[in-house]
Amino acid sequence: MDVAFVDDLNQLISQATDDLAAAGGSDALEAWRIKYLGGKGALKAVMQRLKKVPKDQKAAAGKAANELKNTLQAAYDQTVADLGDAGQPAAGPAIDVTLPGDKPTIGHVHVITQTINEICDIFGRMGFEVATGPEVEDDHHNFEALNIPPSHPARDPLENFYITEQTMLRSQTSTVQIRVMEHRQPPIRVISPGRVYRPDTVDATHSFMFHQVEGLYVDEGVTMADLKTCLDQFVKAYFGPDVATRFRPSFFPFTEPSAELDIQFHYEDGSTKWIELGGCGMVHPNVFEAVDYDTEKYTGFAFGLGVERLVMRKYNIPDIRLLFAGDVRFLHQF
Ligand code: DAH
């Protein structure tokens, strides 16, 4: 009999038994199992060594090794049984469900976007669909096709963000009128919300970027009365049924006649004031000609409203910069 082999087995048993006694809890127990009974554990090593035991001693050594295996397994099983529930992950409530929880902070849609959605909803109910266009525009769509001649002051480099001589950040959403009419024939009823850019000095009422909603309606027999009714309906749906509207004569190169849309705002002290919301008018024949529409057959109206103005009026916001500062204390209110 290989004495060293049997000695080692005995030592292993006593070491393993000590370790097992010290192993408290399921994690330590599992570590013990891996160390002694696992696929790369001590028992496996013993079995490997068994192969090298001289033939005449193999039977006795094998028996001893087998006993070792049974002893370790039995000791392990016993410990697991003794540990009982304590070996399992702690029973009972892991969390106290009666404690007040931490509310997750959930973001929401910005008030500008909310308002654009609302505007699109209101006009949607009047049969308008949404069309969008690029923010980087060319001279043709921003000016030329809108009957704004090369000499017009609106083209001044100080009034626009030019990228090259022929491309720019659009200064108005009227560009989308042209883009829609280029590709479609009347009847057309579209609304185009989006960002526009002008190098204005930022103050309480100006920003270098703001939002407009453009509207366009082209068909046979469209009149100024349709325009007035449409915008009046919109104002009443957005601000409330008591808000009056009026048209003030104005000028835009792409409409004739043109008007400014005002609403009558009521203040808490009982006073009222007319406030400008945007421009509008009957589409100029030159604009129809730019998109090859038959000016004898079709008439149309167009309008452009400032979204920030609509938001600031409705929620009584005194400074446009609040809308772009990204301060959640402000934004949470909407
Ligand atoms: N594009 C004009 C602006 O930015 C607003 C406007 C006026 C749009 C009259 C229109 C319109 O469609 O008919 O000031």
UniProtKB/TrEMBL annotation:
GO terms for biological process: phenylalanyl-tRNA aminoacylation. GO terms for cellular component: cytoplasm. Its EC number is 6.1.1.20. GO terms for molecular function: ATP binding; metal ion binding; phenylalanine-tRNA ligase activity; tRNA binding. InterPro entries: aa-tRNA-synth_II, aa-tRNA-synth_II/BPL/LPL, Phe-tRNA-synth_IIc_asu, Phe-tRNA_ligase_II_N, Phe_tRNA_ligase_alpha1_bac, Phenylalanyl-tRNA_Synthase, tRNA-bd_arm. It catalyses: tRNA(Phe) + L-phenylalanine + ATP = L-phenylalanyl-tRNA(Phe) + AMP + diphosphate + H(+). Residues 121-325 form the Aminoacyl-transfer RNA synthetases class-II family profile domain. Its cofactor is Mg(2+). It is found in: Cytoplasm. Keywords: Aminoacyl-tRNA synthetase, ATP-binding, Cytoplasm, Ligase, Magnesium, Metal-binding, Nucleotide-binding, Protein biosynthesis. It is an enzyme of class 6 (ligase). Pfam families: Phe_tRNA-synt_N, tRNA-synt_2d. PANTHER family: PHENYLALANINE--TRNA LIGASE, MITOCHONDRIAL (PTHR11538:SF41), PHENYLALANYL-TRNA SYNTHETASE (PTHR11538). Tetramer of two alpha and two beta subunits. Belongs to the class-II aminoacyl-tRNA synthetase family. Phe-tRNA synthetase alpha subunit type 1 subfamily. This is Phenylalanine--tRNA ligase alpha subunit. It comes from marine sediment metagenome.
